[in-house]
Model the fold of this input.
Amino acid sequence: QSALTQPPSASGSPGQSVTISCTGTSSDVGGYKFVSWYQQHPGKAPKLMIYEVSNRPSGVPDRFSGSKSGNTASLTVSGLQAEDEADYYCSSYAGSNKLVFGTGTKVTVL
Amino acid sequence: EVQLVESGGGLIQPGGSLRLSCAASGFTVSSNYMNWVRQVPGRGLEWVSVIYSDASTDYADSVKGRFTFSRDNSKNTLYLQMNNLRADDTALYYCALGGGGKRLDYWGQGTLVTVSS
Done:
């Protein structure tokens, strides 16, 4: 399976919004509602932020939202805060019990 | 509280074998599906393998035939047996608890595997 495509970087000032795209194919992102997003701070394990395209686990701020259109999923972080600076990875079910991750996006809060 | 603690990583020569462990607490591994995900330092995440509650397994093409995912229900511990290791298997290996919708709810802190002569 090929990795899902994400932009290498994204940035915004505190209080602004940033949107990260995650592009796959009809065999993964476009074919299933099982898209998740993970946040990873340096030296830490990934943390689940969004699952099933747009659902937030308990404890994740509602500043984080997800959507999908066709073969592209998106994560939007509204009202950027300093602690949102991290790497973000999407993942999608790819059929046959397999998962595929995105290439990762480094979000910088200016 | 869910906890996952990986161990067993280290330096191994190409062609060698290593067994990683993931000790779980706060839940029962046999009732859940568990995953291994790896990350080359400074690079992205790569899904490696899954084991379901019925003990069936699946693998990424890059490790199929070389890695085996198993569990010991009595110890609530998971294992990843890695054989015929290659340089491109060098990575930090995480175990992760799966949830509904193919999400990974909890992750351990990882164990580092370095394959080098």
